[in-house]
Each structure stands twice: as structure tokens, then as C-alpha cells.
Design a protein that fits this description.
By secondary structure, the chain is of the alpha+beta class. Strands 1-2-3-4 form a 4-stranded antiparallel beta sheet. It has helices at residues 27-36, 66-79, 87-94, 102-117; strands at 9-10, 13-17, 21-25, 123-126, 136-143, 154-161, 164-169.
């Protein structure tokens, strides 16, 4: 067994150690995704999706390239492992993978625009000091029958350990 130094990059995830803790982010991977989908010169937005967004099947809209859409959503699904804020939006566009329409692609591109504006964001894991106690905080929310297509509910949760997210779902 050999020591290869501290972990700094693994599967597109970068780890940066500071004096206060460790920051986990995907800045370089997000830049590659933006370039791949010709969004590297796009405008930035402050929120990934609007709060009251309700998507439907879009039968009246033009279809988009399903392969390109699936690749884009796949990239977003990989990014949301470090970005809990986009999990709701990625879940929304993920529903329409089999028959994507123009409005679904627009939402996926909006998420990319949000990522462009938040490239330096990541998850901060503070160093645990011996005198500090571990504390766990959980938040949850649900939305009953918001999905217009299949009449399903959406629920979400996040668990924080000492202020750092350790698991989340939407």
C-alpha cells in the first residue's frame, strides 16, 4: 500500500481543504458540461427553477432531440450530487425523458444557466473540534398532487450534520 497524498479530485468531484474544513465541488466538470451543450457564454440566473413551475406533457409543442436531452439530464443528475438546490428541477425534467419537448429543454438549460452563475458553490464540511458536539438537523417538505401529468406528489428532505448536508432527496 502506498500513500498518494490527500484526495483532491475523484470522478469529477474536487476536494479542497481549507483551515476550517473541506469544500467539495464540481467546478471543472460543470465548465465542461456548459461547453459541451454550448452554454458557456450564456447569461446567469439566480434560481434554478421557478417555485410554482408546473410542467405538462407539452403535446402542443415541438419535440427536441431525445438523445441530446437525455445526455443533458444525465449530466445534471451527476452534478446534483454536490448541488442539492438543483435536485427539484432535475427531478422535474427527468420525468419527461421519453418524450422531451421544447419547454422541458428550456428548463434544463435554465438549470445550466444557474450552474454557470454558481460555479464556485460547493458543499462545505467543517472540521470537527473535539469540544464540539455532533448535531443532526433535518428538514422536509411535500407538495400534494402538483404533478399535472400523473397526479403525483413531490416530497423532499435534507439532513445536516453539524451544518453540512449529508443526504437529500426531492
Amino acid at each position: 500500500m502506498s500513500y498518494l497524498s490527500l484526495l483532491s479530485y475523484f470522478l469529477g468531484i474536487e476536494l479542497v481543504e481549507t483551515k476550517d474544513g473541506i469544500v467539495m465541488h464540481q467546478k471543472n466538470y460543470i465548465k465542461e458540461v456548459l461547453k459541451r451543450f454550448d452554454m458557456d457564454q450564456c447569461y446567469k440566473v439566480d434560481i434554478p427553477v421557478e417555485g410554482n413551475l408546473k410542467l405538462d406533457t407539452g403535446d402542443h409543442e415541438a419535440s427536441v432531440d431525445a438523445t441530446l436531452f437525455k445526455q443533458l439530464v444525465g449530466c445534471l443528475r451527476f452534478v446534483y450530487h454536490n448541488r442539492p438546490k438543483i435536485s427539484y428541477g432535475v427531478g422535474l425534467v427527468n420525468i419527461f425523458m421519453s418524450n422531451p419537448k421544447q419547454s422541458h429543454l428550456a428548463i434544463a438549460k435554465r438549470i445550466l444557466r444557474y450552474l454557470k452563475g454558481t460555479l464556485n458553490y460547493g458543499i462545505f464540511f467543517p472540521h470537527q473540534k473535539e469540544k464540539d458536539e455532533l448535531y443532526l438537523v433535518a428538514y422536509s417538505d411535500s407538495d400534494w398532487f402538483r404533478d399535472k401529468v400523473e397526479r403525483r406528489s413531490t416530497s423532499s428532505y435534507v439532513f445536516l450534520l453539524c451544518g453540512a448536508p449529508i443526504t437529500w432527496s426531492s
